[in-house]
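Schema walk-through. Below, the input block comes first and the output block second. Nothing else is stored per chain. Lengths vary across the set, and this one has 595 residues.
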Amino acid sequence: MGSANGQRCFLLRIELLHTHRPIWREVILPADLGLDIMHEVIQDTMGWENDHLHQFEHKGIRYETLSMAENDPKHAEILFSLNDLLKRAGSRMSYTYDFGDNWEHLITLKKTLPWDEEKVFTCTGGEGACPLEDCGGVYGYERICHYLEDPKKNDDGFMPYDEWVPEDYDPDFVDFEVIEKCLEELKQVEGRGDEFNRQIADELIDEMSDDPEMDDPLGFFFDNLEDRISDDEEIAPYDNLSASDKERFKTMFDLGVQVRRAEPWKNFWDQDIFGVRDPASGLLDFVSILGRGGEVFAVHVHRPPESYAFWEKTQTGTLPVDNIAAYLRHLRLVEIQFVKKSELEGADLFLYELLDYPSPKRGKNQWMQFRRYCPRRIPWFPRAEDLPPLIRATALTLRLIDEVRSNPKGAVAQFYRDRVANGERLPSLPIFTRGEEAGDWDSWNLEISPMDWDESGGADTSYQPSEFELERIAALPLVNQTWEVGAVYLEQPISNGTEPVIPIIAIASPTEQMGDPPQPYVSDQYEENPGECIWRAFFKTATERNQRPVALQVTTETGMQTFEAPAAKMGMQLNLVDRFSLIDRFFEMMLSAEF
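--- output ---
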């Protein structure tokens, strides 16, 4: 249970936007932490030096220091806490630092957790070093990284790199020891207040079990799930776009106009894919051009790792096209589609107005809309950070069209003429790769290359628990019981405050249930895969019961992979079974529930 005064923790993700490589941190903080202290947390965890002004923004309202907010003191940041603005998982706010370089951060509430004195003010993960102060913003940072890849070759004269960039600067290094020390100091300072004189929580449990009189946890769960489906406020996907966000969308619109004018579907069938090798990951985006059938006109960019399995199953005829829920779980793509104006949604029209982009000339399917598909997400509007792969693929689609039409006897045109759908994987594929010299899209190389359909390693649906979690479970008393743990997807999406998400429901329970029914763990965060969900369910049940079993049953390879390390550490027997004896009945109840 939480502390005596109901204090809880927030698991937050702080992400620096618009950079060409990921830079983020995840932290656990008090839910009632003041924004003035949150500013210090961001500075310390990201690695900034606190040399410039800053501001928070949430739903169009800016929260600033007292000196900056003198014209609107009621919105001074010192008067507000995190939980005043972030109300539910998926809620977001922004933080801008240095209005010259304009470093924009996105702060997302991933989870609300019970109070835990050991975890609060900790950094649970991160990637990418902080850019150097005063380096010229995202543009200057990208130039510095390019220079560091090969200082002798990549000195473009933008700045005196050899004098200005520290010798020990590594764009990939995150000093978690320094972060831990800084957060501990903040915790001690913040901990002097009366609000931190709390009793430490002994167990991490969900709100559903806080009420001792609750005799129908499944009913309680479904009642609250129904409320979330029906009562969430309307989501406005294109609100609060920054200037650079708008520029990305304008670029995408401009490329879309060119593709619509070129009509690539006159040369390609829907399964005539080509590859684009992502310079960051080294894996392939698979690009498909739709429109030959005269119904859907679009450019689809399928992203790894799911892209490999999707197209392998498509070619071999094993994709579950008759089960829409299973089909969507194979998709990770972003698309531009050309439609009639009547097919646009309000957000699509709003984007045209927001960018002041001209309406298309008269003609069929001239309007553009953008969508993003991911496992556990229903088709939804993309964020600006989802656009670079689509921009890249659309520009290279124009390159491919030009190659096929200008060189009809060339190898690429011949490839698509000879391509036959025979139920087997393609042994080779036209693939674009960026040349050694980064430049415009004409600098990308196009070759027919052998295909390695296994290079992505497949989508990993397992989860590796942290050492802290493993130690916590290993310290619990051992009981002579067998537990079973599994998960199912619900078909009804729910909103996490940002977008609709397909929830995963996971349950862990003794095979011979005694007392109250098992309580489900519900995940509305699309980043949580099935492996993490079944671990969370197991962790919750173990800490609630204050015990761990001698044996555990799972029904999938995901379950085996997730619990392999915990089972070895705890001396727990792990068994793969065909069917659960108890929790299958609960899953059937959940899947048959109507909202």
